[in-house]
Amino acid sequence: MDDVAYQRGLELFNQGEFFDAHEVLEDVWRAAPAEEKNFLQGLIQVAVGLHHYSRGNLVGARSLLARAHRNLSAYPARHDGIDLAGLRTQLQEWVSALAEKRAVPQLPRLDTHHGGDST
Questions:
Q1: Would you tell me which of 25, 36, 64, 101 could form a disulfide with 9, CB atoms 3.0–4.6 Å apart?
Q2: Per the confidence metrics, is the pTM higher than 0.70?
């Protein structure tokens, strides 16, 4: 996996640049080994879902965030430097808030301390 581009995608995500993060992470996804594809797809779906939210597309946001949760649920609590357990909790909160037309929680952030760990 392209570590430099991956880290750049995470940085863009954490800066709230969700469309740009999606573009960078999609390039990483294209070249990634098969076992990383669903993980990266889940991160891309989070970015696109939050981009939809920022543009007022609440139905699209909820759908993509729910799909992201499903893709990321196949991975351990911490994977490729990201606290996926925490991210999945945040995604559930976002999906529930959008479904119930409540105020959404804080924007999710992705842990950028990359250690290459899968546990």
A1: 25
A2: yes
Compute φ and ψ for 79, nearest 5 degrees: -145, 130
**CB neighbourhood size of 73 (10 A):** 12
Mean pLDDT for the stretch of residues 77-90:
92
Reported as a single tens digit per residue, the pLDDT across 16-40 is 999 999 999 999 999 999 999 999 9
DSSP string, the chain: --HHHHHHHHHHHHTT-HHHHHHHHHHHHHHS-HHHHHHHHHHHHHHHHHHHHHTT-HHHHHHHHHHHHHHHTTS-SEETTEEHHHHHHHHHHHHHHHHTTPPP-SPP-----------
What residue ranges define each of the domains in the chain, with the CATH number in brackets?
A: 3-99 (1.10.3450.10)
